[in-house]
Amino acid sequence: MFSQFGATADSLSKASTLAFRIGTDAHLYDDPDDVNIATLLDSKFDSEKCEALKRLLALIAQGFEVSNFFPQVVKNVASKSLEVKKLAYLYLLHYAEKRPNEALLSINCFQKDLGDPNPLVRAWALRTMAGIRLHVIAAIVLVAIRKCARDPSVYVRKCAANALPKLHDLRLEGNNDAIEEIVGILLNDNSPAVVGAAAAAFASVCPNNLFLIGRNFRKLCETLPDVEEWGQIVLIGIILRYVIARHGLVKESMMMSFCSSKDYNSENGRPDSSFTLKDSTDGSVNSMVCESEMANVVMRSYFEGPDKYLSRSSLEKASSDWDPTCFTSAIENEDVKILMKCTSPLLWSRNSAVVLAAAGVHWIMAPKGELRRIVKPLLFLLRSSNASRYVVLRNIQVFAKVLPSLFASHFEDFFISSTDSYQIKSLKLEILSLIATESSISSIFQEFQVFSFSL
């Protein structure tokens, strides 16, 4: 009986799979090279060309090398069929870097398609041109990107922003000013989709040209909540770096409050020891890093960029033209107010990385009295996947070392669950040890006992 039931279930599963495949191109993945692809590519019928190109893309998806069809595919870029053109561009995008010299055969066709009435065709042409990494056509690609940066289509302008890092990777010194000019144009765009792509291009192409950010700062902040999630992460980092570089740290912030503290305790792992920059030779913690020196470390890293600054010693003295006493006030500074206002809604983003980025802004720039607004969003993230929870707990651990009272009343959120991994359990216990108070110590001690018995 059970064997018959199993056979019936298997038959139903196969029938269901076949039903879902009806009307799709799924059959191409079963045996993609079972026909003469070369013959179909040279066919006079667009339907047969589509069939051949789909089979080529199916082979690529399965890891096969089909670059030998490149010359035949290039000829089909000039097809009047939108579907054939789209499939040909997808193939060329995959192999343009590997076969750049042959891709040059259709460069005139790409330039022609940049003027096509269909924005999709214009975008495909630009993406493929930017994918051909050859110095000889860098000037042509630059002209194409400049043209597309002012295109009426949002999608084409976004593709122009995405193409800038590819052109910049060619390292042509003469193009740098022109590329940065285009980045500035795209950062001033009215579309959030374009601004997000432009922010990524800025971070890749000219991360130290903060003049471009200052020129568009308010508009970027207003656009930030509408930018796509991964673009928000990049843009948050950029505008935070701009505010710190221009105005310095906020006097009322937790960062400056910690720097001003004189009570260091290296034995209990409390906030005082967590930000020590260097240990002395006998293993004891150095005396308090002065306020201006700590501020200098943070400010210079944001001003120069982490890649450049962190390659040097974190205790390197500031140059003579750097003023480490440059601070601002969250109450008086309009740029800081705008930054706080535009990042506050993002604390409840569905993307955990966006929440952490927004929480980081508030931790660095918000007055101490406003820090509690980051607590509930961070605790809400503890309901996410194991990987996300680990990253969130790592951040909470840093915050709790500096300001244990921030999470002290929420100690129950860090109790161990049976589904927690060992790494997450370890982090939760460490956080509990940091935020323990007289009123919660008994409950926390019981949690430690339960954990020890479960080992």
Description:
It is a single chain. The protein is an all-alpha fold. Among the domains are: 120 residues, no CATH class; 51 residues, no CATH class. 61% of the residues lie in helices and 1% in strands. It contains 26 helices and 2 strands. A two-stranded parallel ribbon has the order 1-2. Helix 12 crosses helix 15. About 10% of the residues have low confidence.
Keywords:
455 residues, mainly alpha, two-stranded parallel ribbon, 26 helices, 61% helix, 1% strand, flat
Summarize the structure.
The chain has 455 residues and is mostly helical.
- The residue ranges in which pLDDT falls below 50 over 5 or more consecutive positions are 262-292, 308-322
Helix content: 55-70%
Number of beta strands? 2
Shape: flat
Counting helices, strands and paired strands, the structural category is mainly alpha
Largest sheet: 2 strands, parallel
How are helices and strands ordered from N to C? Answer: HHHHHHHHHHHHHHHEHHHHEHHHHHHH
Distance between the termini: 45 Å
DSSP helical segment count = 26
Radius of gyration over alpha carbons?
A: 28 Å
Mean pLDDT value: 81
Oligomer status: single chain
Strand order of the largest sheet: 1-2
Strand content: under 5%
